[in-house]
Amino acid sequence: MIDDEVKAVIMAIVIVAGALSIAQIAMSGRVSEPFSALGLLGPNMKIGDYPKTVLVNQTIRLYLYIDNHEGRTIYYIIYAKLGDKLTEISENKSADAPILYTYEVILPHGMNTTIPVSLKFSKPATNARLIFEMWIYDPEARAPRYHGRWTQLWLNITAPMAT
Amino acid sequence: MKMDASKPLYSHLSTLSLMLLLLLFTMLSLISVTTCETEEEAITLLREVYSKLVEAEKAGADISNASQQLNKALTLIKSLEEGQANREEALQQAISIIKEVDSMIPTLIEEGHKATFLKNLYTGLAIASIISLIILAYILTPRIFWNLWIRARKHWIVKVSNMGEGRPSDRRRG
Q1: B35: closest CA among B74, B87, B77?
Q2: Is residue A86 less than 8 Å (CB to CB) from chain B?
């Protein structure tokens, strides 16, 4: 009959192949690295052509790109805040700045959306930071929770010239 | 308190009209308060339904359609502006969508349980099949191999030579 070494090799190959197949079946449909993406697009729905200087009360049009790969349906809340160079923001701490606008969207896993945003500023400011923070509605806490994703746009908001 | 029947009717009219005015004013103020709070109430209701939907998703339900409906209602609520002509109508439409999604949830959970059961069953069957294949491969591979080996050499003629002289370089067992 067949040698013991050959039997052992066959057994090893079969076990490895079987283990890989079982792992594939068990892991199918699961998200190993869940994440959400937040992007700010310019007025042409592309990365670029961002406004740098805007007038007080002038409407600027931008787009927010939101992508859900969390493995579940998420209720996103995006806060548009106006800060400055001293405003602190990180993955763990949201900016302590006034909320200008709020955008909300519910996205199933694997879906993305692009939201048009129109913004106006009432006061002039130099080196202003238009911050977009991603929050999610936590169904267990029944309250919005900072999700650690944010993006920003540096702006100079100027008063209109007197005619 | 006894009403004086001897008094003429017009003397009560002023009191009656005052009461009616008060009632009307109260009703109008109530309506305005309700309209003002309804948008927030709609968001609160929507968030409650979303929480239920998340629970349904955890139970294995496919909530993609329901969540899209809920998002539609959310967009509708967020698009409402003060003084909008059809504001009330749009709000009622949004609330109606939310309630419709809410009514769908028990069915979704039930379907989710069934889907989870079937998925677990298929996973179990697949794993059992793989384990059976491993055992079968272990048992049958040597037989199949030798069967094929013999078939491939069935026309061979074996000639015995150098009987009794073992080759010193032969390291095979047996």
Answers
A1: B87
A2: no
